[in-house]
Specification:
CATH topology of the largest domain: Rossmann fold
Number of strands: 7
Shape: elongated
Strand order of the largest sheet: 5-4-1-6-7
Largest sheet: 5 strands, parallel
Number of domains: 2
Radius of gyration: 20 Å
Distance between the termini: 23 Å
Strand content: 15-25%
Helix content: 40-55%
Order of helices and strands: HHHHEEEHEHEHEHEHH
Structural class: alpha/beta
Length: 253
C-alpha cells in the first residue's frame, strides 16, 4: 500500500500507461487510463484531499485530559510507527520519523499531566532489514531526552502489527497491575488501535498524537507534495486495515 502511494508507484503506473498509449495510439482506454493515473496521483499528493478523506477515522475523538481517567492504576502504551536506522562505520543510530515523533511527544505530555508517575510501555519491533533498531527502543531513547525517567519505561520489541502489540502488551499491563491504559497513537490510527486493544481485553483510553504537518500553511496543503502522497497512503492503509481486522475478528465493530 505504501509503495503505491509513492513517487516510485507513480513512475511505474505512468510508464505503463504511457507505453500502452505508444503501443495503441488510437485507444481511448489507453488515453483515459493515463489521465486517470496523472489526475489521481495529483489529487492524492494534495494534502487537503487525504485530510478530508480521513475525517471519519478521527470523528468522535478529542484531546486527552487527565479527567478522562478514573483513579484506577494506569499505564501509558505508546504504539510504534516508522523509524530509521542509520549505519555508520562503527555505530548505528535510530531516528524517529514524523509519525513516531508525534506519538513520543504526546506520550511525554500524558506522562507529565498524570498525577503520579505512570509506567510507559514503548511498543514496536524492527522493520524488515539487516541490523535494524526496533522502534520501541528508539522511542524510549526519545522519551528519555524529553525528560521521562528511563526507569519508568518498559519496552516491547517483538510486535510487527497493531494486533501483535495488543496481544503482547496486555500481559505486560497485567503484570504492572495497571487496570487501564492510555493508548497513544496517531489520530488516523486510533480507531483501529483502540478497537484492537479493547478486543484483547485492555481497558484503553485514547490520547491522540496531533498531525505534525498541521502547521503547514493553507496554500501548501493544496499543492502536490511527497508528504501529501504519503498521507494518502497512510489513510488508505487505515481503511484497508479496518476492513481486514474486522474480517479476521480482531475488532468488534
Amino acid at each position: 500500500m505504501s509503495y503505491v502511494f509513492s513517487v516510485g508507484g507513480f513512475a511505474i503506473l505512468t510508464s505503463v500507461t504511457l507505453l500502452w498509449n505508444l503501443a495503441r495510439p488510437r485507444s481511448r482506454a489507453a488515453r483515459f487510463s493515463w489521465i486517470v493515473v496523472v489526475a489521481g496521483y495529483t489529487a492524492a499528493s494534495m494534502r487537503v484531499v487525504p485530510w478530508a478523506l480521513s475525517r471519519p477515522l478521527v470523528a468522535g475523538f478529542k484531546p486527552f485530559a487527565a479527567a478522562d481517567l478514573s483513579s484506577a492504576p494506569t499505564a501509558i502504551v505508546l504504539l510504534g510507527a516508522g523509524t530509521f536506522t542509520v549505519h555508520g562505520r562503527h555505530q548505528r543510530l535510530g531516528v524517529l520519523d514524523l509519525s513516531s515523533a508525534e506519538r513520543v511527544l504526546e506520550a511525554a505530555h500524558v506522562f507529565r499531566v498524570l498525577p503520579s508517575p505512570p509506567w510507559i510501555i514503548s511498543s514496536g519491533g524492527a522493520a524488515d532489514g539487516f541490523n535494524i533498531e526496533p522502534s520501541g527502543i528508539v522511542m524510549k531513547e526519545a522519551l528519555v531526552r524529553l525528560g521521562v525517567p528511563a526507569d519508568r519505561i518498559l519496552v516491547e520489541t517483538q510486535s510487527r502489527t497493531t494486533r501483535d502489540e495488543a496481544i503482547l502488551v496486555a500481559p505486560m499491563l497485567a503484570s504492572l497491575g495497571a487496570r487501564r491504559a492510555v493508548l497513544v497513537t496517531s489520530d488516523i490510527h486510533m480507531r483501529r488501535a483502540l478497537a484492537t486493544f479493547r478486543a484483547a481485553g485492555v481497558d484503553a483510553v485514547p490520547a491522540l498524537a496531533i498531525d505534525p504537518l498541521m502547521v503547514d500553511s493553507r496554500p501548501r496543503s493544496i499543492l502536490p507534495t511527497t508528504e501529501g502522497l504519503r498521507f494518502s497512503g497512510a489513510v488508505a492503509h487505515e481503511y484497508a486495515g479496518l476492513i481486514y481486522y474486522r474480517a479476521r475478528g480482531w475488532i468488534g465493530f
